[in-house]
Amino acid sequence: MIALPAPPPARIETLGNGLTVCLLENRRAPVVTCALFYRAGARDEAVGEGGTAHFLEHMMFKGSRRYAAGEIDRQTQALGGASNAFTSHDTTAYYFDFAPDHWPEALAIESDRMANLTLDAGQLASERQVVLEEIAMYEGEPWDALEQAVVAEFYGSDHPYGLPVIGSREELALADQRRLANFHQRFYQPSNAILVLSGDVGEEAIERVDRAFGDLSAGQPRQLRAATRPARERRRLERRHGEVARLLVAFPAPPAGHSDHSRLRLLLSLLAGGRASRLEQLLVDDLQLCSWISTDLAETLDPGHVVLAMELMAGADRRQVERLIEEEFARFAEAPPSPRELKRAQRLVAADWIFAHQRAHDQAMTAGTSLALFDLEHPYRQLRRLLATTAEELPEVAHRWLRLDQAVVGWALPSGEIEGDAA
User: Fold this and answer.
1) Residue 144 maps to which CATH number?
2) How many Å apart are CA 383 and CA 256, to the nearest integer?
């Protein structure tokens, strides 16, 4: 029996203006993580305004009433802390790591830029260039460019997950102060936010949060934009990019709250989770057709996708690689794995999960994401489902989701390869 990790003790409060506050006490190390999650991301952007959520994330560090441009970074470093942020399709998050005697500075920063963001025109123009450089970097990196192309083909242009979080050059050129201010006003409100405090911090933290945020007006909770279902037929695309052949396949996946989501994660571990997994043994060790293989399962509110990626060895037959993948998937759909194979995969997933949730910082990020999209119990519920999955359940799950006839198969091929070559 695999021992299930217990969630850290949690206290959840809701302020009068709707701000959700989650306190996770973890005294193992003298550090406090303050993470503020907004239920807002690329999926909330209006048509033609792609990249707004990500651009606003950048501008949140570029000045508010109390903190001049660059002052947040300078103050954080002066106090020995660290900060960063990220934007996804479903959420945007900001976090600080401080020593226990300095963490209240994070509350001062977050409450000020929630209520008093300046969006200075000069800073806007400067940061636009930074984001343009990011776009160029993604376009120039073979894997990033291939993934963007495959995901866009998988979802289509009318689905919020099909558009890049970073936006396009054309959309970015039109992103002005008014657009960012409107997005900020709509979504950066207490009733649409979750604040997580994790680490060497006690019950008195709730009162500090109330003093920092309690007087802010609530705002309106997010209204989710409906998403169409991605097409379910096999599609292919090929690009000329890089010096080696790269394969990236996107399959449909259930939303993260679906019971199949955890079972699909287990299937991916059986397929490509470490050296003992089926595809790793077949394509990397035995036949030496690939140098490495990886998988990634999106944690999304709506039905999402799973990615299988691999880099081929020089001279490898890419048609053979595709055929072998399809045959391995068919075997999975026809017969369950052995008890030993299943237990190995479950132990591997559990060990990775436990290792990734030891630090107060990691616990804060998991709690924030869970509360923003689902509930605090969500990741533990999904892990229990995974560990309770039987071998007999897996063929049906494989047949439902891991099918090349409903996938997008994307290749990035060396520029010198002739169309129609097998290798």
Assistant:
1) 3.30.830.10
2) 12
Q: Residue 12 is inside which H or E element, if any? A: strand 10-14
Instruction: List, for residues 160-169, the tens digit of each pLDDT value.
Output: 899 999 999 9
Q: Taking the chain, what is the end-to-end CA distance rounded to the nearest angstrom? A: 45
**Domain annotation covers residue 326:** yes
Examine the domain organization and report whether 138 and 254 are in the same domain. no
Would the CA dihedral through 207, 210, 211, 213 be positive or negative? positive
Residue 226 lies in a domain: no
Structure tokens at 165: 């979080």
Residue 316 CB contacts under 8 Å (≥ 6 apart), including other chains:
245, 289, 290, 423
**Taking a C-beta distance cutoff of 8 angstroms, is the pair 253, 401 a contact?**
yes
| Ramachandran angles phi, psi of 254, nearest 5° | -75, 165
Q: What is the torsion angle, in degrees rounded to the nearest 10, for the CA atoms of residue 314, residue 319, residue 322 and residue 324? A: -90
Give me 302's structure tokens.
């709506």
Tens of pLDDT along 286-300?
Answer: 999 999 999 999 899
Range(s) of the domain holding residue 405: 235-413
Give the ranges where 79-141 is alpha helix by DSSP (H): 104-115, 121-140
Please enumerate in sequence order all residues whose Cβ is within 8 A of that of 209, keeping only pairs 6 or more positions apart, or say none.
15, 19, 21, 107, 195, 197
Q: Does 422 or 404 have the greater pLDDT score?
A: 404
Quick check: is 227 in a domain?
A: no
The reply to whether 37 and 83 lie within a common domain is yes
Number of independent structural domains in the chain: 2
Residues 293 and 352 in one domain: yes
Largest CA distance in the chain: 67
* Same domain membership, residue 208 and residue 111: yes
Q: Round to whole Å and give the CA distance between 278 and 268.
A: 10
